[in-house]
Amino acid sequence: MLKRSSVLLKAVALFVLVAVLGISLVNAQEAVTISITGVGGAELQWVTETVKPGFEAKMAEAGTPVTVEIVDSSNLSGEELKQQYVLDMSVGEGADLMGFDGFWLPEFVDAGLLKPLSELVGETYKDWEGWAQIPAAVQEIMSYQGVQYGMPRGTDARVIWVNKEILVQAGLAEDWQPASWAELLDGARAIRDNVPGVVPIQLNAGTAMGEATTLQGYLMALLGTGSYIYDYEQQKWVVRSQNILDTLELYNAIYNTDNLGNARWQLAQNGRNQSFEAFSQGTVGMLVEGDYFWRSILNETGDFPMENRDARVSFVKMPAQEAGKGWRGQDFVTASGGTGFALNGGTEHPAEAWALLTYMYSADTLAALQAIQPRIRSRLDVPVTGDATMSRIVTDALPLTQIRPQLPDYNKVSEQARLMTERIVSGEMTPAEAMEVYAVAVIEIVGEENTISLPVN
Length: 457
What we know:
There is one protein chain. Strands 2-1-3-15-6 form a five-stranded mixed β-sheet. The chain has two domains: about 30-150 and about 340-405, Periplasmic binding protein-like II (D-Maltodextrin-Binding Protein, domain 2), CATH 3.40.190.10; about 160-335 and about 405-455, 3-Layer(aba) Sandwich (D-Maltodextrin-Binding Protein, domain 2), CATH 3.40.190. By secondary structure, it is an alpha/beta fold. About 45% of the residues lie in helices and about 15% in strands. Helix 10 packs across helix 19 (about 430-445).
């Protein structure tokens, strides 16, 4: 009996030893490589200097080494990055973690290129402590039809950035705030008439600027009429209306009849950057753009740093066409986008990719990014600090916002909206003609039963 017990104990000991050796062999394996792309500027600095070394050290300490590979995509525009993702993912390639614009999701999901977190990571993804700190509306930036596909970075808001020196030279108050489109245009005319060599206002138009035309330009103006590109109550795309016509008339006034904007910028491939550079050089009075313009373009490490920016630049809110006539009856309007990170549907290391993503968006790691670039983050426990202008964006503009429709057809409809504005700026069509061509195109895209035409005066 004792002999049998001894043999049994030796067998158990051997099993334990093999198990331990097996674990040791696993722990001694080469590090798993997790790649991340879609980051640039301050975020690229943060991922390089904070996220990568911190996460690698944490995983090494846990005995499961991981190497983070950063794929620099800062030389690509948003549209170019999107196309690169399509090419990579369609053949099972691409980075494990990808910086993603929220409005791309429906298209990628419907194409089978993205998978839900619940499928890639498992239902345990819901247990991450950070979800409790991210408002539901912000979580939706990286969700589609109620399914979560990634982690939201945060959101933004759009305003009219102004050069205060130019306002004063034009005879306007340094703290001037237009209360209607009429006052906005009067201010632009004052700049045109009193400050030679300056473009009074930049409102994005045309196809070359991509989604920047729709979100920074067309939707910002359309919301001021009290309408939107999509009617949520009737669940239909609005293709004809007085609101659309009025929006196109605003473009026509700026770029044609009143000569208040630079039409060439709207048609050139690098026109948006030309407008940014001109503003930084003090030759643009007003420019409608997101808070990205302040924190990533004009700042000292931005693409076009502006000398003495903080003293020379401020923002005013985008007024409704008339007071009280804007979206939801507002006096002022803004639109918000939102970006985040999605796990590549074909990643071979979903657990490690998720671990990296949750490490990035822990409160402590995210706070390190705020120290480099204060902006509106996804977590409520990571506030904007150290930047009075960004803090004012949060209090003054963000409560007024409306996000883009998270619908599969949005991208194609958006393309038609851009083309519609281009036809106005180029002088190819009148506002009425451009709206009619837009209506026909959108009906073709979504089906007539999914559209609505409203009365035109």
